[in-house]
Amino acid sequence: MTTPDNQDIPRKVPAAQGFQWVGAGFRLYRKNPLLLSAAFAVLFGVVMALGLIPFVGGALSDLASPLVVAGFMAAYRVLDEGRELELPNLLAGVGGPAIPLMTVGAVQLLGMLAIAKVMLGMGFDPQAIVEVAGRKDPSPQEMQAVLNQSMPAVLTGLVLFAPLMMATWFAPALILFGGARPLTAMGISLKAVARNWTAMLTNSLALGLLLFVSALIPFLLGLLIAMPILFGSLYASYQAIFAVWADDAASGTQAADRFA
Fold first, then answer.
1. How many CB atoms lie within 10 A of CB 159?
2. pLDDT tens sequence across 63-89
3. Are 172 and 69 spatial neighbours (Cβ–Cβ below 8 Å)?
4. Which residues of 15-38 are buried (b: 16+ CB within 10 A; e: fewer)?
5. Cα-atom radius of gyration of the chain, to the nearest Å?
6. Interatomic CA distance for residues 128 and 120, integer angstroms
7. What pLDDT digit, counting tens, does each position of 1-46 carry?
8. Can you tell me the distance from the alpha carbon of 101 to that of 188, in angstroms, rounded to the nearest whole number?
9. Using an 8 Å Cβ cutoff, are 97 and 73 in contact?
10. How many angstroms from the chain centroid is the CA of residue 151?
11. For a Cys staple, 236 with which of 24, 54, 115, 214, CB 3.0–4.6 Å?
12. How many CB atoms lie within 10 A of CB 187?
């Protein structure tokens, strides 16, 4: 297990581990699939319900998202250690470092708003895209004109969104398991993803394929399996990049002490 002292130097792992994390997430999921899928359905439903509240719904949904991630990280830690998973484990974020986790959500929300403002300033017009796409028989010229106007803003938004996602990817786990402060956790997460970009890329491809296949199942039932596995993969990647590094470092320290 990592501590605030050793988790600020993320371990670099091979690219192939990105695929292995999905398999590890699936193996952990199989230990208690019913509770994990049911918990995802309930927690996702709560987050979606918050999003429906007028004026403040979107903000509340973003603030609550890291709490959900932290809950699944705690659940997979319990399963990984061979203990019995219980429903309160999935509420670890709410009953633990709720304010730091919600701070990560607030930073993510502000970042998304800033990115949206930049895109709108560059001429991105989502309403125009919806209007043209919603027509019964839109002309190719109209579609091309809308795409030509929107593409620079979309590409810029993706470039700006990437570091924001990188900074928030491991932040909930770093806060929950290591007690890191929100900004410190996001800085460490950004460094970890950047250092392991090849493994993260292969992991993203594997998860993207998993989500694509699950989306083909009617009534989104596939997501009840795919999303818990995604969280399991996130936990496995955290273990590989942070916790395993900590174990290696501890073993090296003990060996040095023996030979001192």
1. 10
2. 999 999 999 999 999 999 999 999 899
3. yes
4. eebbbbbbebbbebbebbeebbbe
5. 20
6. 12
7. 444 445 557 899 999 999 999 999 999 999 999 999 999 999 888 8
8. 15
9. no
10. 26
11. 24
12. 16
